[in-house]
């Protein structure tokens, strides 16, 4: 709390005096007009440095604010599903999934609920320090100005963790939000959502306060023929709040500060199967836009997670994962020195430390008494040093970069004791550390005024999370063991592509890629109803990503598709997995949005989305069938800046299977209609 208060005070203290007119010296009336005319205007943006020249070399999709705030579900994950290759671990969204399963990845590289894509909010990594999942419910779309998704691309200056790519979320500036934004909506299940964004200019700086509250009884994720008296709806209750301030330090240097908190509770499948995730965070960032550009960032995160597991036979608690406190601290410094004409050089370092500890109690389903008390945890660290150069030679941009990472895994342990305190099981993992060299290189050629050609090759790195190393878990009837000996994942990839604008109103993009994750961490079956996290030799993914954007008058069309041929290489335990498709990995996914804006303030859009079948498990025994959904969005102006909003999710009421373990099935969102009002959007 003291840290959050100190950051707030710092922002306000810096904003007010730095933004106010100077009055230290008296000025004569005749001097004032002349000085007013020549005084340079100070402009603060609240953003980081501009993307490097090489940003166009790697397959990149930019989502603008108009699209971000017009999602039929009102959730950030729904916005990201419009990007070719974006994938969550499960098809459920952040209202009806276990928070620890909210890993995100790109390019169908599979996973085990841990994110293989690096997600940044104003430069700060969002991944949970212990689990590696992304707290999607803590990111209100209305606070964002732009999203930049880079698929592949290696680690480069983005930091370790960008194995499958990078998702950069940028907060909106005052010109996009205005003094006040507000919205409220209710759906046909009487679930509600409300949000507000208040922006105040402070001299040349500004401050933004935002908050959001979502709650509801949820829907039945259990199919009707599998329900029992203990079956519960997927109820949810979540809120988040943030305060952000931006102030100039000099004419070309600005300070950015942010404090935020969130809390999210959910109930899944059975009465009493409640989960909790919460967090607080603070960050300071100084951005210099002068001749020697720089970006300096420091942040701290505190997170916690709790979960109660209910027996699917006796419907009583069998595991109380009562606490999983964790902390993430880190920072980054990037310098862009003007050393050589025609070169854009970036030199820097980044650091992240994550530590946490699981605290859980095993409970007898028959007596309700505690049978075992368990604690597990440790710490991981990553220090990265990078240098990268973009060299422009006429219509050609060449990119090359090196990155060295020192990774360490320390203080790892797992300890289980009986009610009397006697040790039942104990693992003390040895400390380990290593240096890894990564690189990337590529070229962008402006072949014509309307055609860009690109090619790239790269490597990347991801540390196992504390969750993967030390935390076992149960999703009945399957037990998944942790593995303290897991090694770092390594990516090697190549891609070629082009961006083509045949006419002003139409843009096509196509990328072919071949990526391989060596030492890929997966939940590997070692016996019936028993799995363990293991390093597979590799997961290979080859595929095509394509997108189209067109606008003719008031009508717009946006589409994206991803076709991926992904395979596991090697064996797991005593089972031959070679050639199997990675779990939770569809072969084909596509989305198409048709929009219409007849006059200012009106907006009508419909989104058709298809995801092909995928496997629940590594043995390809349980299938999640293909699903095709239709969503819609309508905004109609009423008076001044007030609009009526009508939203529809899964309007065809498609059956979306999100989990299938031996016939035990969970379902995604059914047909849902929202009605609401919003002001200032």
Describe the structure.
Helix content is 6%, strand content 57%. With 681 residues, it is mostly beta strands. The chain has a single domain, classed as Maltoporin, Chain A, CATH 2.40.170. The strands form six sheets. It has a 26-stranded mixed β-sheet that branches. The chain starts with a helix and ends with a strand. The model is unreliable at 1-37 (pLDDT under 50).
CATH superfamily: TonB-dependent receptor, beta-barrel domain
Helix content range: under 10%
How many helices?
A: 6
β-strand amount = over 45%
Oligomer: single chain
Number of domains: 1
By secondary-structure content and strand pairing, the structural class works out as mainly beta
The CATH architecture can be named as Beta Barrel
CA gyration radius, whole angstroms:
25 Å
Q: What value does the average pLDDT take?
A: 90
- The CATH class assignment is Mainly Beta
Task: Describe the secondary structure blueprint for this structure.
Blueprint: H1 2-19, H2 31-38, E1 60-64, H3 65-68, H4 76-80, E2 87-88, E3 104-105, E4 117-121, E5 124-125, E6 144-151, E7 165-171, H5 174-177, E8 180-187, E9 192-202, E10 205-216, E11 236-248, E12 253-267, E13 274-288, E14 293-310, E15 317-323, E16 326-336, E17 343-363, E18 370-393, E19 396-417, E20 423-428, E21 432-448, E22 451-462, H6 466-470, E23 473-475, E24 478-481, E25 489-503, E26 506-527, E27 530-552, E28 555-569, E29 571-572, E30 575-576, E31 588-596, E32 603-611, E33 614-615, E34 623-624, E35 627-639, E36 642-649, E37 657-661, E38 664-667, E39 672-679
């Amino acid at each position: 709390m003291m840290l959050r208060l100190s950051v707030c005070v710092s922002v306000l203290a810096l904003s007010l005096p730095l933004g106010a007119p100077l009055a230290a010296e008296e000025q004569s009336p005749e001097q004032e007009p002349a000085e007013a005319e020549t005084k340079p205007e100070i402009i603060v943006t609240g953003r980081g440095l501009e993307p490097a020249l090489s940003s166009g070399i790697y397959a990149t999709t930019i989502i603008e604010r108009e699209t971000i705030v017009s999602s039929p579900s009102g959730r950030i994950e729904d916005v990201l599903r419009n990007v070719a290759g974006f994938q969550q671990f499960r098809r459920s969204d952040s209202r009806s999934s276990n928070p620890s399963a909210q890993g995100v990845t790109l390019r169908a590289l599979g996973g085990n609920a841990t994110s293989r894509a690096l997600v940044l909010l104003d430069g700060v990594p969002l991944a949970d320090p212990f689990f590696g999942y992304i707290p999607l419910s803590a990111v209100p779309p209305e606070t964002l100005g732009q999203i930049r998704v880079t698929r592949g691309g290696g680690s480069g200056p983005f930091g370790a963790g960008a194995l499958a790519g990078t998702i950069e979320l940028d907060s909106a500036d005052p010109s996009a939000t205005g003094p006040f934004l507000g919205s409220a909506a209710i759906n046909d299940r009487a679930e509600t959502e409300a949000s507000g964004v208040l922006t105040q200019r402070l001299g040349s700086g500004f401050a933004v306060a935002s908050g959001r509250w979502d709650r509801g009884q949820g829907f039945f994720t259990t199919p009707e023929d599998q329900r029992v008296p203990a079956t519960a709806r997927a109820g949810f209750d979540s809120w988040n709040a943030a305060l952000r301030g931006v102030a100039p330090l000099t004419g070309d240097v600005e300070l950015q500060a942010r404090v935020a908190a969130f809390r999210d509770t959910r109930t899944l499948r059975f009465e009493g199967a409640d989960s909790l995730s919460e967090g607080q965070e603070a960050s300071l960032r100084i951005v210099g836009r002068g001749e020697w550009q720089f970006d300096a960032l420091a942040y701290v995160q505190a997170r916690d997670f709790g979960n109660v597991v209910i027996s699917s036979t006796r419907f009583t608690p069998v595991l109380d994962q009562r606490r999983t406190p964790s902390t993430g601290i880190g920072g980054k410094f990037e310098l862009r020195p003007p050393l050589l004409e025609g070169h854009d050089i970036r030199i820097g370092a980044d650091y992240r430390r994550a530590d946490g500890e699981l605290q859980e109690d095993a409970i007898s389903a028959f007596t309700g008494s505690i049978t075992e008390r368990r604690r597990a945890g440790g710490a991981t660290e990553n220090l990265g040093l990078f240098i990268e150069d973009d060299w422009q030679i006429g219509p050609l941009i060449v990119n090359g970069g090196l990155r060295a990472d020192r990774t360490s895994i320390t203080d790892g342990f797992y300890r289980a004791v009986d009610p009397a305190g006697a040790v039942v099981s104990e693992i003390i993992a040895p400390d380990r550390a290593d240096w890894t060299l990564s690189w990337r290189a590529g070229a962008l050629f402006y072949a014509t005024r309307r055609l860009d050609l690109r090619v790239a090759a790269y490597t990347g790195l991801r540390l196992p999370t504390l969750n993967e190393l030390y935390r076992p878990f149960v999703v009945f009837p399957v037990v998944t063991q942790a593995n303290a000996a897991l090694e770092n994942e390594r990516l090697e990839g190549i891609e070629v592509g082009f961006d083509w604008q045949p006419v002003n109103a139409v843009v096509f993009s196509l990328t072919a890629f071949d990526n391989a994750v060596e030492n890929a961490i997966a939940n590997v079956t070692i016996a019936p109803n028993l799995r363990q996290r293991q390093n597979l030799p590799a997961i290979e993914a080859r595929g095509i990503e394509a997108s189209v954007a067109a606008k003719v008058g008031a009508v717009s069309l946006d589409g994206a598709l991803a076709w991926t041929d992904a395979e596991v290489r090697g064996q797991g335990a005593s089972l031959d997995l070679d050639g199997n498709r990675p779990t939770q990995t569809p072969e084909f996914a596509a989305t198409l949005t048709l929009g219409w804006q007849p006059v200012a303030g009106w907006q009508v859009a419909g989104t058709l989305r298809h995801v092909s079948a995928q496997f629940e498990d590594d043995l390809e025994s349980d299938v999640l069938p293909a699903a095709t959904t239709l969503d819609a969005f309508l905004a109609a102006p009423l008076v001044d800046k007030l609009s009526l909003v009508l939203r529809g999710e899964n309007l065809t009421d498609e059956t979306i299977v999100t989990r299938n373990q031996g016939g035990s099935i969970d379902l995604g969102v059914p047909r849902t209609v929202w009605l609401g009002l919003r002001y200032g959007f």
